[in-house]
Amino acid sequence: MVIVSKDPIDPATMFEKIEKSRGGSVLLHYAVVKQKVGSSVSEGIHFERVGDMEGELSAISSDMKRQWDIEDVLLVRRTGTLELGDIISLVAVSSPSSKDAFEACRHGLERLKGMKTITKAERFL
């Protein structure tokens, strides 16, 4: 499943959205807006959609499922203006194997960082 939203990501509801009937391992990684960006201080980030984000996220999910023994993948991205501590994205993976869950999650996180269908503008103090 993929979700693009201007609304805040609620961690409690995200766990319920991922299939986990095969058991094993469920890994959720939340990226949050941080204050320090190199030597600069940020007060937030603005994310703008510039293409088919759902399509790009679906391609990432399919790629993850091809490479690892994955039961389910949930990818979530925020758009709009986010403040310090707000959740930017979620990569959630369920798998019978914790090794596959961790490797797939790391891969998904790196792919989300490099998305072409969203732009990022730091808001510096």
UniProtKB/TrEMBL annotation:
Family note: Belongs to the MoaE family.
Quaternary structure and interacting proteins, as annotated: Heterotetramer of 2 MoaD subunits and 2 MoaE subunits. Also stable as homodimer. The enzyme changes between these two forms during catalysis.
Reactions catalysed according to its record: 2 [molybdopterin-synthase sulfur-carrier protein]-C-terminal-Gly-aminoethanethioate + cyclic pyranopterin phosphate + H2O = molybdopterin + 2 [molybdopterin-synthase sulfur-carrier protein]-C-terminal Gly-Gly + 2 H(+)
InterPro entries found in the cross-reference section: MoaE_sf, Mopterin_biosynth_MoaE
One function term, GO molecular function aspect: molybdopterin synthase activity
Enzyme Commission number(s) of this protein: 2.8.1.12
Top-level division of the source organism's lineage: Bacteria
Protein name per the record: Molybdopterin synthase catalytic subunit
Record-level GO BP terms: Mo-molybdopterin cofactor biosynthetic process
UniProt pathway: Cofactor biosynthesis; molybdopterin biosynthesis
